[in-house]
Amino acid sequence: MNPDIVSDVLRRVRLRGSLYFHVRGSRDWAAEAPPSRDIAAAVMPAAEHVMEFHMVLSGACWAGALGAEPVHLATGDLVIFAQGDPHVVSSRPGMRAQPHVQGYFERQHQARPFSLHLDACEIHAGDAPGDAGDTTLVCGFLGCDLRPFNPLIAALPHTLHLPAATGQGWAAECMRQAVQESNASRPGSGAMIERLSEMLFIDAMRRYLGTLPDGSPGWLGALRDRFVGRALALLHESPEAPWTVDELGRCVGLSRSSLHERFAAMVGDTPMQYLARWRIQVGAALLRDSACTVADVALQTGYESEAAFGRAFKRLVGQTPAAWRRSARG
After folding, report:
1. Which of 30, 216, 253, 329 is the most interior residue, by most CB within 10 Å?
2. Per-residue pLDDT at 190 exceeds 90
């Protein structure tokens, strides 16, 4: 497994987090979330892709994407809807509620997280006294870029359920701390809440990687492969290097043809296709976040000239590097 590749991707695609709801459910209750794309402009307006997560701080409930089997969540469990699917969180399976899309926009400029009390399918703003049978959740959003290339998001399941694990109690404590920070509104609280949410997601990725059996298909499975994982690590460590499949094969201990076939079967791209896409992602991040000239970015991403980089960039992104920089910086 190569967890640092995940870190590299998350840095390049600008992962960021936000808490939104502190929910208490009593008796029979349900809350239904719309597709994240319908509310992204309100909850994380700068993000191209938005995921929603729920962590159970006490009690138990059910959560599932519409049309899919729900999963049971116990205290300390985390569920992430990585593809932004509409979903339901409820006291028992099969329940539905009316999604309130406009509510996200109405609360857009209010302090977060909102405290909600759900009782018999009614939602009341503000907290409410509970009893030992209540379920308490923290719910939030994670945003990231999809373009030009984000191999992680496409590799995640629609519903990622991570049960509470021994030694993982810190995650729930982090979310409790995030709620306290939000309620206290102290200097730096916003940044701390974002970092805590991001830490939760990064830990979730590490735990999910650890559950994948050897030989699992897809980009995440490839990270665990002895040969393809090493090849991916080399491409991420030095994307500017003049890689060939022959050279990669020598470095990882496979013949050119064996690495080409194994890499393509697991990742979905050949090694050189993957490298070309990742170089453009690295270049896009440099264009957005640095003062480097386009010529400098071309050299740092392995292109012999600004013109060659510009052609490759426009072919993948649909814009010239200069146009991308202007749009990315707003």
Report:
1. 30
2. no
The letter for the amino acid at 166 is: T
Q: Tokens representing 6?
A: 């995940």
pLDDT tens by residue, 93-126: 988 888 878 777 777 666 666 566 666 544 444 4
Most distant CA pair in the chain, distance: 67
Sorted by where each begins, the domain ranges of the chain are 3-211, 220-328
- Polymer length of the chain: 330
**What is the signed CA dihedral for 212, 215, 217, 223, rounded to 10 degrees?**
70
Q: What are the CA-CA distances from residue 285 to residues 133, 148, 192, 278 (Å)?
A: 48, 9, 24, 11
Q: Please, what is the Cα angle at 144 between 142 and 148, to 5 degrees?
A: 165
- Whole-model pTM: value is 0.86
CATH number of 220-328: 1.10.10.60
CA 52 – CA 64 distance, rounded (Å):
12
CA proximity to 314, closest of 270, 271, 268, 283:
283
Cα 107–chain centre separation: 23
CA-closest candidate to residue 200, choices 242, 152, 124, 138:
138
What token pair was written down for 249? 């094969």
Which CATH number applies to 3-211? Answer: 2.60.120.280
Q: What angle do CA 150, 154, 155 make, to 5 degrees?
A: 110
Count the neighbouring beta carbons within 10 Å of the beta carbon of residue 15. 23
Q: If DSSP codes are grouped into helix, strand and coil, which group holds residue 81? A: strand
When mean pLDDT is compared across 67-76, 83-92, 102-111, 314-323, the lowest value belongs to 102-111
